[in-house]
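Researcher: For the record, we're logging two predictions in this thread. I'll number them. Prediction 1 follows.
Model: Prediction 1, sequence and structure:
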Amino acid sequence: MDYASLFRFIIDFRTKFILIAGWPLMLAAQQAPKLKVAFPTSDSTIVAEGIAFFKGQADPSGMLFLNGNEVQVYRTGMFAAPLHLTEGDNELHVRYIVGSDTVCRRMVVVYKKPAPPQPTSGFAIDDVRLSMEGDLWLQPGDLLQVEMKAPPGMKATFYKGIPLFEVDTADAEVAGIYRGEYVIQPSDSLMEQAIRFVLYDETTQQTVTKDSRQRITVLNQSHALTGLTKTNDVPLFYGLGTDRLGGAKMGYLDSLVKLEITGKMNDMYRLRLSEQVQAYVPVDFVRLQQGVHFRPYSLTGSWMVSSDSTNDFIRIGLNERLPYTAIVQHAPTRIVVDIYGAVSNSNWITQKDSLIAIENVWYEQVSKGVFRVYVETKQPQLWGYDVGYSGTQLVIRVKAQPPKLDLGKLRVAVDAGHGGRNRGATGMTGALEKDLNLSMALKLKTALERIGTTVIMTRETDRSFNNGDRLTWLKAQHPDLLISIHCNASVNPLVQGTSTYYRHHAYRPLSRHILAQLRKLGLADFGNVGGFNFALNAPTGFPSALVEVAFLSNPADEERLLDIGFHDEVAERIVDGLRDFLEAVQ
């Protein structure tokens, strides 16, 4: 049984026997091949980038040299070293000494830069594109930006004979790139129509055309276009940018919230929240309203602020469900909620004497379409809040600080990242992130329960549980805190270290205290990362922190991650970080 298989075997049957405390899983070192080079993949390898990594597996009792420099072989048998390549052939002389044996290999890595883009051949239009993806809905005043690739030195136009201008070759990296802009006019009446591009050779008087694959519709109707959100937790985006975790989000909306739609691009509806604020929402989350519907608008009613002994509630009456966003300000700590389309008719605010989380509430009409609510809390540390609708009444729930800031008295959710079909990252040894996450999460559960903490686990076995379902389940558990445990990974095997992540600034102290404790394990500092767009950091209802313990892709970090004794140390450091957080709050 190889090293990674042994580790997975132990994880799969961890509930059936007790691991000997501190036993490092290093048996693979005894079975590792004398030298197995994972990269370069052959004696002659071609790459398209100037930086690569010499990596593989060897018997750690030996000594490995690359071009005369020793390369560290970790106890797992893994090794990695950077290759800074020059264009052309790069010779690698590998020498490996183990016992009385010496293995020598000569390898060549050929750094071949990608061929530069080539100009269009012949009289033709190679490609046309619009600045945004998908079919577009635009309004008068919107800017349409286009690009075309064709032979250089020609006359080019698009749409209604609007000129295209050739871009300087140094900027475009190839000759024959034409660009143009056009401001949509009220007279434009496009309805799911392609944009035509025209190329004209003044010497031969030849003309060639090409239509865009995308279709454009101009929203020039006399009334507003509106829609309703289909479900709860509808994401509201600042813009059209994206990355592997999705674009930056303003927040989330309830179902049946009325939205004014002013465009569509990149499979997102553009929304008008106010005269100065716009947002985007995925098309699949909105049902368009047919016929004529008025823009989102409501007068506000008078308020009631009350408590149920665990949470305080603010209830604001509206005529319909309007869009909203919320942020948290500090010094003093207060929740600020903007309700778009609302106009004040709030003539009194009743605050009960029994409030336990809220110090005071007030409002201001910051513009004719933005009604702003301020909620000042009694304690500097925010312990959770939610904004949502009950009927057409907007309800702001503010969670009170636990009566005793004793970790043994709290309810802590522990999430073992990934699981089941979602394996997460894979280490150089073949170890799976999902298994390591689960092992460390179970260790944390044990450490917390030892001091009396009520622990809620998202999973205790190797099962699939997608983040959307985890999020729904976690919200229903009402934890005091959430810790999600993961292992990091990078394409660069030399990147290493521990890190913590938070989404909302109010919950940064939790992540910082945990990171400070993890650094005591001698791990490199990868950092405390804020505004992180991770699903389990998204809830505002309870403080949360994502812990990326170490890099599974780094041989030094992986060596520690594969030591069960290290899992105990990680658990204890997280517990100490939680204690430090609670002590700082008092």
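Researcher: Logged. Prediction 2.
Model: Prediction 2, sequence and structure:
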Amino acid sequence: MDGKKEITLELHHEKSALMDDLCDINDFDGIVSLCEELETYTHITPLIRLHIYYNIGTGYSHVAARRDTQFDSKISGFALLNFRKALAEVKSFARESFGTMASSDMMEAFYDLRSRLLTNLANELDYQGRRLEALAYYEDPIKSGNVHAVMSKARCIYRLAQSVYDDSHAFYLQREAAKCYQEALSRINEFPLIQKQGIEANPFYKHFLNWFEERELHCGSDFPELEKLKGSSFSTKEEEDYFAWCTEKRLFINELNGISISEVVNHDILTLPSFSARINTLVTTSEGLNFHGHFDEMKTDYCYARYLAFMGSSIPNFEDHFFNSTFDHVDTLEYEINNLKTNHLKSCFRISYSIFDKISFLLHRFFNLDTIQNDHKVDFKKVWFKPSNQQLKDIFQNSENEYFRALFFISHEIRQSGRKVSDDEDLSYWFDPDTQRLFKIRNAMEHRAFKLVDTVCHRYTDNSSTEIEQHRKELSDTQKELEDLLLSQPSSQSNDIELEIQIEKLRRRETNIKQDLVEKERMNSYTVVVGVEEFESLTMKLLTLAKDALVYLSLAIHHEELKKPQEGIAIPVPVPKK
């Protein structure tokens, strides 16, 4: 088990209780030390492994929020990493328990732990400024009755409301935050005693709710409930279905889609905010609109990718299309699916991945992060750091811009080429276990060979693993036999023809087996093969992340613009619309 020690149930319970005690007294060094110790343990059952990763993530999260609060907190990264490892164990437990009769106590413990895990994972994303992602994780524990998730969601939405630059959007977010706070406070007795006392002693909740009640009385009638508002009108059923699908998947570039799936939020309304610039008569009006135009280009790319995902999801796996009917296709005997559906999904994947490169270039040029001569060096992973080292650039050092921070942490989940650090050494790279999978797929799509296959049938086509092991054993046995013969060979130069023939035969066998294994590796690694269902899931994840990143980019620029001193005469420059 990766060299880890098997933890006993007694020791596991002891360490879990110790983690709670250390967090209660804010013993940060003790927490980190315990997290490092827990990383050396594992268990045969996924439920205990889930709990181990949950404890590690909770410990690191506690330290990150209270002590290691720097912009690029690795502790926060470790927290998120372990929460996601725990989430993988949730899936393992579900697979293992399928078809078995798990006890009611075990299932109750699992659901409780899963609810706490999702809440804490969402809280860590919120702490990193990744609020749209956090909101998606709160929903499940809230449905299960987790009052902590209700309170955390309220805080997350309140913070988002403080960041947006559209007043009507801010009002709707504040209204949703107020609803969540009211629900959490109405269930105050469900909190542990110490937390209940802390909530009751905090004047913020009463102050905010009273303030918003006044706002609701004065202008609430100007903002009908989102569910009562109408969205776009549609000319075709396909268009209506597409917009409904986007809303349900929360894929609109619109902060309100994070809290609502009402049809009124079906607009990609977010853009770059207005920003100030020095007067320069050399810069033409068109050039002055470069940044807004670039953001608009990214939105268009995203919308096209989103439509491709919709089209791909609506096409059956084995439906043929005339676009590639002009030649006879090779049957690779792997149940490959190479139709319009899979090519829509592949194009969506490519476009979504490219958006992060474009975001890094806009950051690079908008904030003058480096010289124009270094344009070719810009990528999403490196744009944050000074050349030739891992020190943050000045604008990011001690930055309070939470959406810069959100983009920074996302950049660790979007792998770029040209990495000089191995995966094992770059722990920040593993903020999301899907990271490596996404990069390998992209690399294969762009530079190598890539196949999408029918998962159910493909799993029965490759039964070579046993044969490979047999070859490796045969190689080991042959090498041992050869070694023994060479040791037994007389030291004198006598001609033992029979022995020489036997040695030569073993050497030829060794060479042939080695060549077979090398050839197998060469051909087996030639193509990256992925099941259609898994690829569609990864594509949707990447597409959603691209949408979130565009929102964070807009809010990050807005935050920086608010920091600029308002001196002299400001002349508003309208952005032309088609």
